[in-house]
Amino acid sequence: MSIRRRLHAAWLLRLVALITPALLGAQEPAATPIPVYWPTPNGEYFQTGDIMPLLQPTASGRPESGLYGCVRNGGSRFHEGVDLKPIGKDRNGEPTDPVYAVMEGRVAYVNRVAGNSSYGRYVVIEHTQLDVPVYTLYAHMADVDSDIQPGVKVAAGERLGRMGHSAGGYAIPRSRSHVHFEIGLRDSNRFQDFYNYKRYGGKNQHGNYNGMNLTGMDPMLFFERARTGRLTSMRELVQSQPVAFTLQISTREVPDFIARYPGLLTAPIPLSGLTGWEVDFTSEGMPTRWTPMTTQDVETRREGDIALVNYNAEALENNCRNTLVIKNGKPTLGSGLKDKLQLIFGFR
What we know:
With 348 residues, the protein is of the alpha+beta class. The protein is built from seven helices and 17 strands. Strands 3, 4, 5, 6, 7, 8, 9, 10 and 11 form a nine-stranded antiparallel β-sheet that branches. A four-stranded antiparallel β-sheet has the order 14-13-12-15, with no helix packed on it. A two-stranded antiparallel sheet has the order 1-2.
């Protein structure tokens, strides 16, 4: 292993001690926390729990603009991850901070051409050892180390490259250099079919690792559980997100999403008689809980029919992702949710 791929040990999250059987009220040992590293050399958050000093704001200067959610353009623009600023710069003002893998995994995708994506140069790692194999994404890098290639296994804390301000289609000034970090799920193995159907201009340069095919969750949910030693299951983390709405989707097909994330099933898939899925969604459109339906659940619906089971109006108040939209007290499927359903189920 080369020097630049040695593990970054400075900010390894110290695993908490096992909870005693007396506290558990049982003889079974506590689940072991998943080892997590901070993605930059500034791992102060793991000690303080305060993310605000580590964020790189947009031109607005508001630190919250570096967080996840509807934090930009007055709440009308969504930000899929968190932006972390550097602590080191060279004489030209360029960041010198390395970027590290937060967990062990396999490099799934590398984009080395900055102009090919609004992410600039970015790396995607899939963490297939977990009960739900999430991806992590590291964007706007100045460079990616030459030995970081698709298929390569990386350890937690392993160097991926150097922080920067690369981007395609717009410019990030070096004074606002940062690493954009995401964690989430991949929607489809057939993203190109969706891309062709939508007739987007230009070529899809990134296959199934195009950002439109990646659905992030709030990274601070992940980091806070890691910081406090409570990150023992990625399934539990994904399904701990608030349910904003539940849909019943009529189809006899098993989406490839389920093949990748069987841990999100609430019951086994029936050998016969499958008629659809009842799916819980976050307000951002991440499907977190899947229950197979059979003929005894639905008898009269046609292939592709969608029924709203329930929704949480409070969770959908600031819904800049345009998923389930409440207009005059009536819920309707927004364009963002229609695209999501097309991606996952292939409906036209």
